[in-house]
Amino acid sequence: MNDALYAGSARYYAAGRLPYPERLADVLRDGLGLDGRGRLLDVGCGPGTLTRLLAPLFAGAVGVDADGDMIAEARRSGVDSVEWRHLRAEELLAGLGTFRVATFAQSFHWMDRPLVARRVRDMLEPGGAWVHVDGVTDRGAPGDQPLPHPEPPRDEIDALVRRYLGPVRRAGTGFLPQGTPSGEAEVMRAAGYTGPERLPVEGGAVHERSADQVVAMVFSLSSSAPHLFGERVADFERDLRALLRSASPSGRFAERLRDTVLLVWRP
């Protein structure tokens, strides 16, 4: 994982990303028969959004991320039951112990996937599960149902980012002309897992956002992290805010939460 992927994004992440559907924790609990025992390992935890949501289902939880600023934000949450570790997924240590569940949310594609899959497999207790949270929190669900405020102007925002950073998607210190890698199922099966079992989590709730939160959303992305703009970051933010004022003079936006699927893999 490129440690610069989210450089400067940590302070924007919690404010900028949409929440997961409220029922996600209940679906995981019921689908895996969780009873408050065992431990959770959340890999690529960012500022701990998912970790905090799921931690009450376990006796303990560990959140791991390669970005030190993300871990610092997570520690500010004040959740005593979670241990936060600044650590690359590829460097997961046997000394962390064993876990009933390991979760990956919008993170696995950045890692050395075969290595991480094997390493986490050996850290799962008998009967344990790897859970890939297949959901998107940077943008809402498409649809034609009415909303109380305009949606963020995604196409115009993307065009503005390209105007500043060029036509090829940026990520960390490099580029992603083909996007992030796919083929997770093949990676998991090659590493000795079976599955996946699919646990759907319905979205649909309307989430209202301020212009400040939409700006935070843009800066929370690896493709438009603050460091990518260099000395022009203030100019970009000025133009972004002007674009948002044009799209919604009230400064309010709304989006509908997307459905999420929990993909459960077992060693």
TrEMBL record:
Domain Methyltransferase: 41-128
SUPFAM superfamilies (UniProt xref): S-adenosyl-L-methionine-dependent methyltransferases
PANTHER family found in the cross-reference section: METHYLTRANSF_11 DOMAIN-CONTAINING PROTEIN, METHYLTRANSFERASE TYPE 11 DOMAIN-CONTAINING PROTEIN
Keywords: Methyltransferase, Transferase
Source organism phylogeny: Bacteria, Bacillati, Actinomycetota, Actinomycetes, Micromonosporales
Alphabetical GO biological process terms: methylation
Name of the molecule in the record: Methyltransferase
Recorded GO MF terms: methyltransferase activity
Alphabetized Gene3D superfamilies for the sequence: Vaccinia Virus protein VP39
Bilayer-crossing regions: none
Lineage top rank: taxon: Bacteria
